[in-house]
Design goal:
With about 400 residues, this protein is an alpha/beta fold. It has three domains: about 20-25 and about 215-300, Helicase, Ruva Protein, domain 3; about 40-210, P-loop containing nucleotide triphosphate hydrolases (Rossmann fold); about 300-405, Arc Repressor Mutant, subunit A, CATH 1.10.10. The chain is built from 17 helices and eight strands. It has a five-stranded parallel β-sheet, sandwiched between helices. The structure holds adenosine-5'-triphosphate and magnesium ion. Adenosine-5'-triphosphate (ATP) binds near residues 35, 41, 73 and 189.
Length: about 400
């Protein structure tokens, strides 16, 4: 900020001026917002419309399966197409229900069917009935309504991992329905997922497959330019910042969500400092903020044993002389010591080795093997996150707090 003497009035005056406002509409800059137009996804939308549009001619659409990496418009495309179709069906007085379920949130068979009942205006308790009863209730009520129901199962991999019954029953349901029908749209960003499904479920669910390719840098630029036009005041997003955000997101497998998050976080930064333009530097800072939030999230949700290994490494890191390597064997010894102090069974050295690999994969530490001549080889560990940061995040866990005290 400026070197001039600080004054509360000056700063408040500045913030009250419309030209320092960054966000024209903050909601637009969040990743759950779906814009009216989705550039660069025309082909995918067309495919989905051609599949579902059969409904307008009295047919039953085939099931569709959408996949592609995270943040590349699968949910946005589906929700937009479904909303358009529902509107058209209403105009044509065609009976249609549409249901959107995020299977990461609604993740049990019971809750899926309770949700489905609610979506066709049938009240059921959110818990309490036997699962089979709620399934058959959904079917009977749907049949009574003589309607079609398009059911979107977003992040469907979560459902299959937790309860594959819900999906199995849904894929079989059409053969038992006389007057009504359902079509399923499964969405996933888990590219291996298809092979995890039961073969019968897979063949039904993937009647139509629509793959989404990552965006290129120019495509992301276009997407965020349009988004910024709607969400930010004119001139707030500088061209170098736009370029930087698009480049970072393109590197991150063409992830439009990442680009939008970067701009929102950078915008908040600019706003909090009462400036009026997002610079390239702000995007860099936003990148660090987002990454450190992600690290925090991962660290906090580690299983206890992994936390113990990480905290052992952290303690050794603080104790060692500068330049001394931390050997994985020392980490293990320290870990065993900690376990015995808190009265917990310790894992074998081999299992701890696996946990060290996991922590490496998660980017918390990095490991390398050094050769010590004729004494053999030894694995050494360096922390990728600052010890103080790890300690402050992990000490939320009461057991770790006890260890640190
Ligand atoms: N073509 C596009 N035009 C405008 N905005 C887009 C486009 N594609 C994606 N977005 C925006 O990017 C963000 C992420 O998109 P979306 O939620 O659809 O990703 P996704 O493919 O469903 O990812 P995930 O697999 O993580 O759920 C949203 O804010 C969405 O509005
Ligand atoms: Mg999605």
């Amino acid at each position: 900020m400026t070197d001039k003497a600080f004054s509360i009035e000056d700063l408040l005056d500045k913030m009250a001026k419309p030209e320092v406002n960054v966000f024209k509409n903050r909601k637009v800059m969040t990743s759950s917002y779906i814009p009216k137009s989705l550039p660069n996804r025309e082909e995918e939308m067309k495919k989905l419309i051609l599949t579902l549009g059969v409904l307008l001619k009295g047919g039953t659409p085939q099931n569709a399966f959408l996949y592609g990496k995270t943040g590349i418009g699968k949910t946005a495309v589906t929700k937009s197409v479904i909303a358009g179709l529902k509107k058209k069906a209403d105009e044509m007085e065609i009976n249609l229900f549409t249901t959107y379920i995020n299977c990461r949130v609604v993740d049990t068979t019971y809750r899926i069917y309770a949700h489905l009942c609610n979506s066709i205006d049938v009240e059921v308790p959110m818990t309490g009935l036997p699962t089979d009863e709620i399934i058959s209730k959904f079917m009977t009520e749907l049949e009574k309504k003589k309607t079609h129901n398009i059911i979107v199962l977003d992040e469907i991999d979560f459902l299959v991992k937790k309860s594959s019954k819900a999906l199995y029953v849904l894929t079989r349901m059409n053969s038992d329905l006389q007057n009504s029908s359902i079509s399923l749209i499964g969405i996933t960003n888990d590219l291996q997922f298809k092979h995890l499904m039961d073969a019968r479920v897979r063949s039904t669910l993937t009647e139509r497959e629509i793959t989404f390719d990552p965006y290129t840098k120019p495509q992301i630029e276009r997407i965020i330019k349009e988004r910024a036009k709607e969400g930010l005041y004119d001139g707030v997003l500088s061209t170098p910042a736009l370029n930087k955000a698009a480049a970072a997101a393109a590197q991150e497998h063409g992830d439009a969500r990442r680009a939008i998050d970067l701009i929102r976080v950078a915008g908040e930064l600019v706003e909090s400092e009462a400036r009026d333009q997002i610079t390239e530097k702000d995007i860099e800072t936003a990148q660090n903020i987002i990454e450190s939030n992600a690290v925090m999230e991962v660290t906090r949700s580690l299983p206890l044993q992994a936390k113990l290994v990480l905290i052992s490494t952290t303690i050794l890191d603080e104790r060692r002389e500068k330049g001394d390597p931390i050997k994985s064997s020392e980490v293990y010894e320290h870990y065993v010591e900690i376990c015995s102090k808190i009265g917990m069974d310790s894992l074998t050295q081999r299992r701890v080795g696996d946990l060290i690999n996991d922590l490496d994969l998660l980017g918390m530490i990095s490991t390398s093997v050094i050769s010590k001549g004729r004494y053999g080889r030894s694995r050494v560990i360096t922390l990728s996150v600052s010890p103080s940061e790890i300690k402050s995040i992990l000490s939320v866990d009461p057991i770790i707090k006890l260890i640190l005290e």
